[in-house]
Amino acid sequence: MKLIFDEQDENLRIDAYLADIMPNVSRSKIQSKIKSGKCLVNNEPIKPSYQLRVGDVIEIEEEVFDVAKPKPEDIKLEILWEDENMLVLNKPSGMLTHPTTQEMSGTLVNALLYKYGENLSDINGDLRPGIVHRLDRNTSGLLMVAKNNKTHEYLVENMKNHKFVKKYLAVVRGVVEKDAFEIDLPIGRHISQPQKMMVNGKYPKEALTKVKVLERFDNATLIELTLVTGRTHQIRVHLSYIGHPVYNDTLYGFGKMKIKTQEQVLQSYKLEFMQPFGDEIICLELEPDEKIKKVLNSFNK
């Protein structure tokens, strides 16, 4: 199986990375298989302590590491825009963007494989065909998919150069006082909880989020967020750090509230980009999702 390492987890040790994506395999077994040459990085044997870099190609033997490739599944997709090179869809809350070795079915990738088969980019390896960027499981909204490698590279390059407009809606705890401001704080891996990220964590990277208040309530605020960078859990980490965690985001300290939803009330609702290899500007915008409507309706009763 081929895995392509991206900037979201740069500088992780190879054994820690594989242990994270293969929780059913012990770290000691992973280290043993790496030492015996069953895992290659860029076609070369490495040590368990090897620190991964962006673009590294990891190759592992599926039967040795008990890993299977994702299979096509007939899962309905809500496609909002499509041409011969790419598509944009509305990912529902609760759906993983791509499989992990712990969850190999029910993901967006399984649905994409059923509908498009081999007509997806493979730059990101066998677990993430077509996937250019990710949304957290419980974050809904607009997500781009590449049908070929040339388009995938085009989209990634445009994202790095901040040529896309990506906006989110969120309900947060507390009343946000400023009407508009920026959060410019580096984000890295959490020091003691590897499933989390944190401001100034391990191997921090620049992270910039723009915030605009849309509506204030007694103890909550509806805000619009513009992502300038795209770090793992960026919005959730930044908002938690300034004392306004996303509503019902238990991973980042929201706590219990009487209005229950499927975790964080966060939606990727607006996307603007140039059509690959064309001159048309594509602008897509969603209505607030059911979680946002449910919480806002409770405030207005």
Labels describing this entry:
301 residues; alpha+beta; 3 domains; Pseudouridine synthase; 20% helix; globular; Structural Genomics Hypothetical 15.5 Kd Protein In mrcA-pckA Intergenic Region, Chain A; nine-stranded mixed beta sheet
Helix content: 10-25%
Shape: globular
Give the tally of structural domains.
3
Alpha-carbon Rg, integer: 20 Å
Under CATH, the topology of the largest domain is which? Pseudouridine synthase
CATH architecture of the largest domain: 2-Layer Sandwich
Classify the oligomer: single chain
Largest sheet: 9 strands, mixed
Whole-number mean pLDDT: 90
CATH class of the largest domain: Alpha Beta
Low-confidence stretches: none
Query: Could you tell me the number of beta strands?
Result: 16
What portion of residues belong to β-strands? 25-35%
Number of helices: 7
CATH superfamily of the largest domain: Pseudouridine synthase
Helix/strand/pairing category = alpha+beta
User: In whole angstroms, how far apart are the ends?
Assistant: 53 Å
SSE arrangement, N to C: EHHEEEHEEHEHEEEEEEEHEEH
